[in-house]
Each structure stands twice: as structure tokens, then as C-alpha cells.
Amino acid sequence: MITLDNVTKRFGDVTALRDVDLTVAKGEVICLIGPSGSGKSTLLRCINALESPEKGRVRLDNEVVDAGRQDIDTLRGEVGMVFQHFHLFPHLTALGNIMLSPRLHGRPDEAKARALLERVDVADKADAYPDMLSGGQKQRVAIARALAMDPRVMLFDEPTSALDPEMVGEVLQAMRTLAAEGMTMLIATHEMGFAREVAHRVVFMDEGRIVEVGTAQHVFENASHDRTRAFLDKVL
Fold it and tell me: Which residues, including other chains, have CB under 8 Å from residue 175's CB and lie 6 or more apart?
């Protein structure tokens, strides 16, 4: 479903991604792990053309992802993204946030929006504004909003890192549900227990490169590379 071929992305003198190759199958859950600045977020942002690589290409179901495409907004609608910070519109209720994109595309559906809130276990917060919600509730609304356009792929960029510890579990549970339903997902995360539990494959990144790819069991219990083992020794 997703293919990255020799993708390189630079920001000035900093190379955020270096010759990255990765293929993601339909229904696969991949967790990206690695130190801060290793390129995880940039990789995700290249998949929905929030960033454009200097070299290489990204494909979604064999369609090249390019910010210059006339239909790039339609293509982005196929890729839901949940960010580190919630980015909810403060003047809209939870329900209004979820309905905004479908309304702009001419297909508002309040019943569907309410069903999405129920799916992430915040149905009772439909009429609440973001400043009335906890961090965990805001992030679950953000997940529901990303699902509103029926994406084929969901991207999560450190979705729990801005949350208080007691709120992390409720967001991870919403993501577990999506994984169990067969959603194709790429998740940049520091939650190693979660990665071990849900990932079909774990990708360890460092300095813009993919260092190691394997099953969760392989990466966490029998990593091949010294750099992977050194990282895991510090975080586990």
C-alpha cells in the first residue's frame, strides 16, 4: 500500500532522511522507534506530502505522492494523520471538529461523526469544546477527526508524548482498536510496550536512516545491530 523508494529529505544542512526504503502492506501495523531527531516524523510527513523529498519517491497504492499534484488534497484525504499536539479548532465542538473536513468536501454526516466519537469512547463529549476536554480526550477526538474521511492509511506522530501519563492508556486503547480492525498504520512512538504488542514490524531509525526492521520479537529480543541494542538498553 505504501512504498518509499530511496527517499532523502534535507532541511538546510541537516539531512533528516537518508536513502530510506520501506514497503508497507495493506493492514500492516508498523511502529517507528528511535531517538528524537532520527527522522521518524519526517518520514510520516513525506507520506502525505506535508514534506517533499529532494530525492526518491513515495507511492500510495502505486500513485506517486507529490505536493504538486492537482489532486493532492484528495490524495491526502486517503491518509489520516494524528499529530503530537491535537490541533483541534478551539471554536468548534468535538462534533464540529470531526464534521469540518467532510463538510468542506460536500458530504457532512452527523450520524457518522457521532459514531466515530463513540468508536473512540468519547461519545458523551460531542458538544464539548476543546478547552473542556482532557488531553487524552482531545487526542481521541483528533483520531476520530482523522477517520472522518475514511482514510486507507493512518499515520500517528508520537500521539501520546504530550499527554500526562494517566491519559496515555486511553489513547493507546483507541489505537489498539484500529489495529484490530485491520487499519494500515504507521506509528512513531516512544511507547515500547505498545509497539511490542501491536506492531507487525518494528522499524528502528537513527540519524535519518533505517537501521533495522523486523518483527517486534526480533527487534526487542534479538536485535541484529549494536545501535539498536544500545538504544533499547536505555529505554527498556
Answer: 143, 156, 159, 185, 187, 194, 198
Q: From edge to edge, which strands make up the β-sheet containing 184-188? A: 79-82, 153-157, 184-188, 29-33, 201-206, 209-214
Count of C-beta atoms within a 10 Å radius of residue 183 = 19
> In tens digits, what is the pLDDT along the chain, a chain of 236 residues?
899 999 999 999 999 999 999 999 999 999 999 999 999 999 999 999 899 999 999 999 888 898 777 788 888 888 999 988 888 999 999 999 999 988 988 888 999 999 999 999 999 999 999 999 999 999 999 999 999 989 999 999 999 987 888 889 989 999 999 999 999 999 999 999 999 999 999 999 999 999 999 999 999 999 999 999 999 999 98
Kindly report the backbone phi and psi dihedral angles of residue 65, in degrees, each rounded to the nearest multiple of 5, phi listed first: -85, 115
Alpha helices in 21-153 (DSSP H): 40-47, 72-76, 94-104, 110-119, 135-147
DSSP label of 23 = E
In one letter, which amino acid is 110? E
- Residue closest to 187 by CA, chosen among 79, 53, 40: 40
The reply to whether the predicted model has a pTM over 0.90 is yes
- Give the C-alpha separation, 198 to 189, whole Å: 12
C-alpha closest to that of 101 among 89, 85, 90: 89
- Residue of 82, 50, 79 whose CA lies nearest to 66: 50
Find cell 460536500 and name the residue: 106
